[in-house]
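Customer escalation, tier 2.

The customer says the design service returned an amino acid string that "doesn't look like it belongs to this structure." They asked us to rerun it and document both sides in this ticket. The original structure tokens are below, unchanged.
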């Protein structure tokens, strides 16, 4: 039961990833594709943060009363640091994509992928 419960977060992250992938591949509206891309990015970020979590561990900060620090008592800070960078990249990507969508809508009057492809032929 404990193993099943501990793998539940990976299962939920996988569902979130698949929802994002479905939105990117199936939905024709470009804003919805952008939202699906953000859902997919959040799934990846949550997955890596979950990988870096250790039950009962603390952040790797040296404490004065800790005479003999052991690595197993600390969480791995690398996934958290990388995901902080990923969040910044995600926000930047979303901003650029939204500005491109505004330009596309002003020029073609639609954000539907199928209508855009017909207008481009």
């Amino acid at each position: 039961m404990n193993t099943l419960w501990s793998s539940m977060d990976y299962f939920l992250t996988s569902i979130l990833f698949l929802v994002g992938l479905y939105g990117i591949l199936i939905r024709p509206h470009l804003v919805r594709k952008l939202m699906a891309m953000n859902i997919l990015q959040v799934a990846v970020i949550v997955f890596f943060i979950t990988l870096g979590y250790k039950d009962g561990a603390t952040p790797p900060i040296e404490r004065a009363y800790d005479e003999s620090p052991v690595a197993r008592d600390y969480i791995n800070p690398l996934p958290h640091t990388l995901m902080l960078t990923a969040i910044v990249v995600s926000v930047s990507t979303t901003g650029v994509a939204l500005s491109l969508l505004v330009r596309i809508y002003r020029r073609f009057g639609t954000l539907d992928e199928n209508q855009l492809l017909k207008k481009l032929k």
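Tier 2 assessment: The sequence is consistent with the input. The chain has a mean pLDDT of 88. Helices lie at 2-6, 8-26, 30-52, 77-108, 113-120. Sent an explanation to the customer and offered a walkthrough call.
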